[in-house]
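The instructor's notes for this session suggest beginning with a concrete chain rather than abstract definitions. Hand out the sequence below and ask the class to guess, before any prediction is shown, which regions might be ordered.
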Amino acid sequence: MGRRRGSAPRLWRVGLYIRLSREDGRTESLSVQNQRKILMDYLKEEFQGPWELEEIFVDDGLTGTDDSRESFQRMIAAVKEGAINCVVCKTLSRAFRNYADQGYFLEEFFPRYRTRFISVGNPRVDSFLDPEAVQMGLEIPINGILNDRYAAKTSADVRRTLDMKRRRGEFIGSFAPYGYAKDPADHNRLVPDREAAQVVEEIFRRYVQGEGKGTIARQLNHRGIPNPTAYKARQGSRYRRPGPPGDGLWTAATVGRILQNPVYGGTMVQGRQRVVSYKVHQTLSVPPEDWYVVEGTHAPLIPQALFRRAQSLAGRETRRAPGQGELHLFAGFLRCADCGRAMTRKTARGLVYYTCSTYRRKSKTACTKHTIREDRLRTLTAQALGVAAEDLTRGLLFARVEEICVQEGGEIAVHPLQTGEESLT
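After discussion, reveal the predicted structure:
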């Protein structure tokens, strides 16, 4: 055993550090309760010097490959503040799975703050009683490398397993999408959650009938229906969206995310994001061509024709007039017959006109005006659909029209929905 350096403080203010990761499972030898018992027994029976337990820091379900763990950071803050001057853990791997982190904290951080570090497992480490083993020995660095490589191998094995499940269309998320629940007999399979599924069905039905996302959100809020996050909390789920706590209310963005999620059509899409590495836990977006897309993995909440119709409508222009909450009758339906771009709406001398957006906003040589007055557009569209002009509504357009192309000279071509989709509403 090495020679002591300097004099010991009159009292060691101890912080116990305990960590259990998901990869550890619930092995009894690594359980939080077992680690706490081992560390308390060590303090009472083997610790050299007067001590007082200040706090027990526990990170449950977190990897040791970086130092961003909440309780670990609280412990580091306590060291900096002088609240503790001794850290005790079961093994080096409980505190560090990253070789670089182990070297920094053992060789730089703890010495700088005159903090004793003890690992009671194999190899046993005590930076106060045997500082040479930490600063100049080989066993501790080699153990750190082995822990680091073990974490790398475990991460690779877990990733391969998850990718295999994704390819098979098995659901691997921690929480089922709103409208679904995990099958009690198979947690990788989704089954409808009847109460939430009815809300999803209503959102799609009302949207294809011409109601805006904001209108749908306001009506759901008016009826006191909790948004997905609040609903899951009410069901006892620990699900939390990133950011500050929400108010439980629906927004247009929430409705939009539901309308765009292919899971409601029976298609599983996973792997949209990935972490940089087992050490760098920052997430990166994955190109769509690398997503795992498997159709028919679970019961759809929305018929395919209805789902496709919603996707088509979601891409339409949906601007509202200043001060108006409802969409204009033709918003999102008009296209220039030549360049294919949307038509823009303008008012002049009390009359409303639609003009090619390319001509108006980009270049007067790239296309022509294709101007048409709104009252004439209404009349021509009504005639094409065989209804009176006063009976023309957005709901009717959503039910029967794919798009309306405005030709130069003010004529129009009304393109109906594909056969089989007219009955969606």
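Then share the key points. Confidence is low (pLDDT under 50) at residues 1-5, 421-425. The chain has 14 helices and 17 strands.
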